[in-house]
Specification:
GO terms for molecular function: beta-galactosidase activity; metal ion binding. This protein is α/β, with parallel strands linked by helices. Helices cover about 30% and strands about 20% of the residues. The longest helix is centred in the middle third of the chain and has 27 residues.
Length: about 700
């Protein structure tokens, strides 16, 4: 995969704006636009309050009443058409867009804008009926059937051709309608399926390998295929990671995951190019860190990022994590929360607990405060058929206000209250970032390196755990992809990234030399690019930069091992890099009990103006948080970062600056219980103008906007 950077994506957007992207009259069916040009830089200059709307499922007679009710609730955007392929192309080659043209005309007249979606998540039956070769196949050889969604193989040429045909026709027929402000690619790419093992996918796998390695001997050498007689003489012999009596080579398993996920991202780029033939409007995709795609690479297909989230009230921190991730994904652009539930999530066989009163408005306020431009619901009217009957909606299936209807009104009120503040301010640049790596995710899915009880079982859980640790301490932070630039940061935390590439190491070294502090967390550096064990040093190139020698990489889980870091003692668990330090490297954490006693598990080395910190093992047990908090506080201080405030659990402070240079904090209580937070001495309530003194008291699910000085 080629290097993708935040700076590169931002520069591309700036170049588009400078050159002037092609713009055609809305509603025109003139010649195609230049498919090579991205959409122009854009911002709606308002907050979006949106909902998914499915006119193909309900009587036309309901549309006018729906629109009037949307207006009364402050809904200003609808998203549509992502599941309507069979409505627009009921038989192959016969197109009818009248349902959507009619609705879009009415929406435009009412001042409600539209996000138009490509319908490729739910292909019509004519595409796959009688053609099992066009369907997704899992690792057990089971072929997915028409009847749900994501059943087709995007690797099959006939499927791709049909997808691009409907997208191009949609773009030509609907893409310049005056109601449309943006496009969404597909819907929740690979939410229900993972690797594709169809014949078409495996044929493309062999092409991918050939492009990557050029010659089969290079693959054999990189993967060490003489083990268990896995040696190959042609790329066509290399199997996909289908079910075997035991396990495939780790190199093969991880490579197949990367192939499939990169291929999906490239399919998204191809969708974008189909849209661009007739529309230059911004493009997004409703992503989620759980989905089986290459998230960073997929951003090349998008002009702004968006995501879906269905947290319960107890899972509110997931909203902060995803906002911090997708805000940084395409720098300089807004992000949207494209789907969330008004009261509870649900599908056949399960439903989540219902939101407490007030939580939805708190959720929306958090998204808007953290830089989100859009906050949207799934869905307007409860499904009367299908697989998601229990899911909440703004209106019930019998067209009455739902249990969440009043909460939507509260969101509209919160939006109207915050909108003038947010449009007059910009989010302050976070000084701390946590690294998210798609490659690391694939490797850890192949080889779960920490099996202790209570530790996150998924890679995203590890990253979210670190994010929450920083969030709960009251630091302003974000999450950056592996290939992102490190500009503007003072502290970088990279947990659980087994392979550290040359390019990442060079960027990190430059970041440190300029004064940054890099904390490389447990497992980082313990594997090579092709998911092999380094043979030159325990942590590969990272070890040389850190000025250490790794004596052992060993599992501490269940051994009772302990360590001391900066005066704090804790049990340790998971995999540990036990090290000795070279001259110029300081030991700051030592194993105090168990195997490897006396060796270092945390070191720091000054490089230029900054420091590289190696954290070789994770604290565990009762004093886990004490050790991690000490580590973060200490190195944040070394990097010149101060906490915004001593925030109790559940309170989030979002620092922003208005157009006059004044510091504005949005303080949110994401819990139902009352909370209080200490403030700078000079703090004024923006809405009342009153001085707040040294303490701010927050009722459950409330937000305060304050102006502060001296911070």
């Amino acid at each position: 995969m080629s290097s993708i950077s935040r700076r590169g994506l931002f520069s591309l957007a700036g170049k588009s704006a400078a050159l002037g992207a092609v713009s055609l009259p809305l509603g025109s069916l003139a010649g195609p636009v230049n498919a090579a040009e991205p959409a122009p830089y854009y911002r709606q200059n308002k907050l979006i309050h949106g909902v998914a709307y499915y006119p193909e499922l309900w009587p036309d007679a309901d549309i006018d009443a729906d629109i009037a009710e949307m207006q009364s609730l402050g809904i200003n955007v609808v998203r549509m058409a992502e599941f309507a392929w069979s409505t627009m192309e009921p038989t192959q080659g016969n197109f009818d867009f009248s349902v959507f043209k009619n609705v879009m005309d009415k929406m435009h007249a009412a001042g409600i804008q539209v996000v138009l979606c490509t319908p490729t998540a739910t292909p019509p039956v004519w595409l796959t009926h009688g053609h099992p070769e066009r369907c997704h196949k899992n690792d057990k050889g089971e072929i997915m059937s028409h009847g749900a969604r994501q059943h087709a193989s995007y690797e099959h040429p006939a499927v791709r051709k049909a997808c691009f045909t409907i997208i191009e026709r949609m773009s030509r027929e609907l893409g310049r309608h005056p109601s449309v402000i943006a496009w969404q690619l597909d819907n929740e790419m690979k939410a229900h399926v993972s690797e594709d093992y169809s014949d078409a996918a495996i044929a493309n796998w062999h092409k991918w390998l050939k492009k990557r390695f050029k010659h089969i001997d290079a693959l054999n050498k990189a993967w060490g295929t003489h083990i268990w007689s896995q040696y190959y003489t042609a790329f066509e012999q290399v199997p996909a990671s289908v079910t075997t009596p035991f396990l495939h080579n780790a190199s093969l398993i991880t490579a197949y995951k990367m192939f499939c996920r990169e291929s999906v991202a490239d399919f998204m780029v191809a969708q974008r190019d189909s849209i661009r033939k007739y529309s230059d409007l911004p493009i997004t995709h409703n992503d989620n860190p759980a989905f089986n795609i290459h998230h960073e690479r997929s951003m090349l297909a998008q002009d702004f990022a968006s995501y879906d989230a269905y947290p319960t009230a107890a899972q509110w921190s997931a909203l902060a994590f995803r906002s911090d991730l997708y805000r940084a994904a395409i720098p300089g652009k807004p992000f949207w929360l494209m789907e969330t539930s008004v009261a509870h999530n649900g599908w056949l066989g399960n439903h989540q607990p219902m939101h407490p009163e007030g939580f939805l408005a708190a959720e929306a306020s958090l998204i808007y405060a953290l830089g989100g431009e859009g906050f949207c619901y799934w869905l307007w009217r409860q499904q009367r058929t299908g697989a998601e009957l229990p899911h909440s909606a703004v209106k019930s299936a019998w067209n009455a206000p739902s249990i969440g209807y009043g909460e939507v009104k509260k969101v509209a009120a919160a939006k109207d209250r915050l909108e003038p503040i947010l449009l007059d301010t910009t989010l302050d640049a976070p000084p701390i970032a946590i690294t998210y790596s798609d490659h690391a995710r694939a490797m850890i899915e192949t080889e779960g390196l920490d099996k202790r009880s209570g530790f996150p079982s998924r890679y995203r859980g590890v990253i979210e755990m670190w994010h929450k640790q920083v969030l709960d301490l009251g630091y302003h932070r974000e999450v950056r992809f592996e290939n992102a630039e490190l500009d503007g940061l003072k502290l970088l935390i990279t947990p659980a990234m087994p392979y550290v590439s040359d390019s990442f190491l060079l960027r990190a070294k430059d970041f440190i030399e300029q004064g940054g502090v890099w904390i490389a967390g447990p497992v980082t550096g313990t594997r090579g690019k092709e998911h092999t064990v380094p043979t030159d040093a325990g942590l590969g190139l990272l070890e040389k930069l850190a000025g250490v020698t790794t004596q052992y990489v060993m599992p501490l889980t269940g051994t009772g091992a302990t360590g001391e870091l900066l005066g704090v003692s804790s049990e340790l668990s998971g995999w540990c890099a036990a090290m000795t330090a070279h001259e110029g490297t300081q030991v700051v954490g030592t194993l105090t009990a168990g195997r490897g006693k006396g060796l270092a598990f945390v070191t720091e080395r000054r490089i230029g103006k900054g420091k590289l910190v190696l954290l070789g093992a994770m604290p565990h047990g009762d004093n886990k948080d004490g050790m991690l908090n000490t580590l973060i506080h200490h190195y944040a201080g070394e990097a010149g970062i101060s906490r915004l405030a001593d925030t109790p659990s559940g309170v989030v402070i979002v620092p922003r600056t208005n157009n006059r240079g004044q510091k504005i904090w949005i303080v949110l209580n994401m819990l139902a219980d009352k909370r209080s937070v200490s403030l700078p001495k000079e703090a004024i309530d923006v809405f009342t103008g009153k001085s707040l003194g040294g303490t701010l008291s927050l009722d459950g699910y409330t937000q305060h906007v304050i102006q502060v000085t001296g911070v």
